[in-house]
From TrEMBL:
It comes from the Eukaryota. GO terms for cellular component: endoplasmic reticulum membrane. Pfam families: MBOAT. The chain crosses the membrane at residues 31-51, 63-80, 108-130, 383-401, 421-443, 449-470. InterPro entries: LPLAT_7/PORCN-like (IPR049941), MBOAT_fam (IPR004299). PANTHER family: LYSOPHOSPHOLIPID ACYLTRANSFERASE 1 (PTHR13906:SF6), PORCUPINE (PTHR13906). This is Membrane bound O-acyltransferase domain containing 1. One of its GO terms (molecular function) is 1-acylglycerophosphoserine O-acyltransferase activity. GO terms for biological process: lipid modification; phosphatidylethanolamine acyl-chain remodeling; phosphatidylserine acyl-chain remodeling; phospholipid biosynthetic process; regulation of neuron projection development. It is found in: Endoplasmic reticulum membrane. Keywords: Acyltransferase, Endoplasmic reticulum, Membrane, Transferase, Transmembrane, Transmembrane helix.
Length: 490
């Protein structure tokens, strides 16, 4: 959802909600988006109750989930939804015809290539506005899913088990899905509009009614004394997430108007405010831009939970957890004391996708390559590349500082508290500085902002990287295979 700069009624989707859009003064494409997600939420409750795995065969659940998903994307995006169907069918053709040794390469090239062409065409050819809610969002999610599945099929059928990491081995797909399973995974109504990306094996287990049992087995639940556990209800988790969604929407409608991004290029900000004022105001503006993401991602999570998908196990108190598909942890984001911790809790499922298809697999400079893939996936606006190119040195510098100094502050609670307060402030300001181009999008305002900030975090990050030694740390990349993991422990 984009900032509400004023009513706009252009949309390629249905216009039946135009009167409501006019009454609210909200762009029609945003009204359609929210309406589709509310419909999906209601459909999810119906799906869980009346099409429970105990009452309906997996084929019926797959078919209904797919048909509802197709209806939603056509309602929301009209003929532009054809882009989603074209990409799905092209990648299905690759899955059926390509060898397992190349299926991941071909799927990745086609999916990312088609997504990039669509990003370029909607901006420079079709003149889509910067702040519209359009078909590119669902296309980005489908790109994640088709590439994730292709890599997991390659892991399951094209690689030796001993060459896989523990996680790759767990998620490897050893039988190619049928057309119905493929369409259901990519186009189901629960995630086709706003995601999130999920693993194919988890989704099929959910459709077949094995999802919860599978999670409990992974936790060795019988060994923990949970010999009989009724099927957990997601109702509490859904209500909690809907409350967060409502608060996020209210904050979005109020804070965004009070602290618009355009303030960062005002004459007062650029030429008259002092450096500390600019830094604090930048933080406030970036905080005001977050609720729209909190709203969209939390609502998407609630939709999946309402359908019974997203169970991740039980905690130490025996309470059910429904965060398997969660895209963010708001508390950990707002209290993060390191760049790494912030990124780990923001857009979680996209981070998991980047790790699956890129970070674990490229042989050189995985951090740089992963940041560049993330920028390309988001689109072709220059601001994305400013953000991710800035993120590379900031991430490396934050890692160097943490690995070299953090252990000196763990000897007492007072020192640890001081360290946490200082690193929290630095982290939040560094993230605001790094992410600002992401919401400004264009080159000129980005350069204007960074000039007014004297390229502060760029310079500091580069100095830290040059001065501090690079220390290996236990949070470095995980071993590539089960064999390497065994060697490390021997």
């Amino acid at each position: 959802m984009a900032a509400l700069a004023g009513p706009s009624f252009r949309t390629t989707g249905s216009t039946c909600l135009h009167p409501l859009s006019e009454r609210l003064g909200i762009p029609l494409e945003q009204v359609n988006f929210v309406a589709c997600q509310v419909f999906a939420l209601l459909a999810a409750f119906w799906f869980r109750i009346y099409l429970h795995p105990g009452k309906a065969r997996p084929e019926v659940r797959h078919a209904l989930a797919t048909m509802l998903g197709i209806y939603l994307v056509v309602f929301c995006f009209g003929w532009y939804s054809a882009h989603l169907f074209v990409l799905v069918l092209m990648c299905y053709g690759i899955m059926v015809t390509a060898s397992v040794s190349n299926i991941h390469r071909y799927s990745f090239i086609v999916a990312m290539g088609y997504l990039t062409i669509c990003h370029i065409s909607r901006i420079y050819i079709f003149q889509y506005g910067i702040l519209t809610t359009d078909f590119s969002g669902p296309l980005m999610i489908i790109t994640q899913k088709v590439t994730t599945l292709a890599f997991q099929i390659h892991d399951g059928l094209g690689r030796r088990p001993e060459d896989l990491s523990a996680k790759q081995h767990q998620l490897a797909v050893k039988v190619k899905p049928s057309l119905l399973e493929y369409l259901s995974y990519l186009l189901n109504f629960m995630s086709v509009i706003a995601g999130p990306c999920n693993n194919f094996k988890d989704y099929v287990a959910f459709i077949e009614g094995k999802h919860i049992h599978m999670r409990l087995l992974e936790m060795h639940w019988k060994q923990r004394g949970l010999h009989s556990l009724p099927e957990p209800s997601p109702t509490g988790a859904v209500i909690h997430k809907l409350c967060i969604t409502l608060v996020s929407l209210l904050l979005f409608l109020t804070l965004t108007k009070s602290f618009p991004v355009t303030c960062l290029v005002d004459d007062w900000f650029v030429h008259r405010a002092n450096f500390l004022t600019r830094l604090c105001y930048l933080y406030l503006v970036m905080q005001a831009s977050k609720p729209k993401y909190y709203f969209a991602w939390t609502l998407a999570d609630a939709v999946n939970n309402a359908a019974g998908f997203g169970f991740s196990g039980v905690d130490k108190d025996g309470k059910s957890c429904w965060d398997l598909l969660s895209n963010l942890n708001i508390w950990k984001i707002e209290t993060a004391t390191s760049f790494k911790e912030y990124l780990e809790n923001w857009n979680i499922q996209t981070s998991a996708w980047l790790k699956c298809v890129c970070y674990e697999r490229v042989p050189w400079h995985p951090t740089v390559v992963t940041f560049m893939l993330s920028a390309l996936w988001h689109g072709v606006y220059p601001g994305y590349y400013f953000t991710f190119l800035t993120g590379v040195p900031v991430t490396l510098a934050a890692r160097a500082v943490r690995n070299n100094y953090r252990h000196h502050f763990l000897s007492s609670k007072v020192l640890k508290a001081v360290y946490d307060v200082v690193t929290w402030a630095v982290t939040q300001l560094a993230v605001s500085y790094t992410a600002a181009p992401f919401v400004m999008l264009a080159v000129e305002p980005t350069i204007s902002l960074y000039k007014s900030m004297y390229f502060f975090f760029h310079i500091i990050s580069l100095l830290v990287i040059l001065i501090l030694p690079i220390k290996q740390h236990h949070t470095q990349r995980q071993p590539r295979s089960l064999n390497s993991a065994k060697k490390k422990t021997d």
